Automatic annotation (TrEMBL):
This protein's UniProt keywords: Membrane, Transmembrane, Transmembrane helix
Protein name, entry field: Uncharacterized protein
TM annotation in the entry: 16-38, 50-70
Length: 180
């Protein structure tokens, strides 16, 4: 099927709002647990006030960071995925910095981990994509993905207005056009 380029898939803002609300609720829960520890109220995790403090702080930091990321995506005008004649630009998770040119892509696959659905993009030079990533957490995630799955590029479709199967088909279709 010949599609008009660019092909743009927006971020699913409804799901993004749900993720944001969930993250904010978990931040609030962390604050509540921390406050209860300060006042020596309630039960402690595994009977340890120190462990409960640590878990509360980790909850606040992790889900606070997630809330910031979700807010930035919510107020961004960038589409989730752009597929054009140059390649693929993934903005849904911002793990991949910049464009993935067609000449780099070797194949596409689907992967599911619990309720998360991913489109895996296999490239000739996965280490270059890891080096482009400045965020240490995202870089470590990409390195782990490369080690376990043979690619550093995972596109999470949970926040997109397209299914993993549909996105993989479109990418494979466009890749086939460029390889012929």
């Amino acid at each position: 099927m010949n599609r008009t380029l660019p092909i743009i898939y927006p971020i699913n803002r409804f799901k993004l709002v749900l993720y944001l609300l969930g993250a904010l609720l978990l931040v609030a829960a962390g604050i509540l647990v921390f406050y209860n520890c300060l006042n020596h109220q309630g039960r402690y995790f595994m009977g340890s006030i120190e462990l409960t403090y640590i878990l509360a702080v980790l909850c606040i930091v992790f889900f606070g960071y997630a809330s910031i990321l979700f807010c930035s995506k919510l107020f961004s005008n960038k589409p989730g995925i752009v597929i054009d004649e140059k390649g693929i630009v993934e903005n849904a998770t911002s793990v991949v910095n910049g464009i993935i040119p067609w000449k780099d892509i070797t194949s596409v696959a689907l992967y599911k981990m619990q309720s998360n659905k991913f489109v895996l993009i296999y490239v000739h030079n996965p280490e270059e994509y890891i080096e482009r990533q400045k965020n240490i957490i995202k870089k470590k995630s990409m390195q782990a993905n490369l080690k376990t799955h043979g690619t550093s590029i995972f596109i999470n479709t949970n926040m997109l207005k397209i299914t993993d199967v549909e996105l993989a088909l479109v990418i494979k279709e466009q890749l086939a056009i460029r390889q012929n």
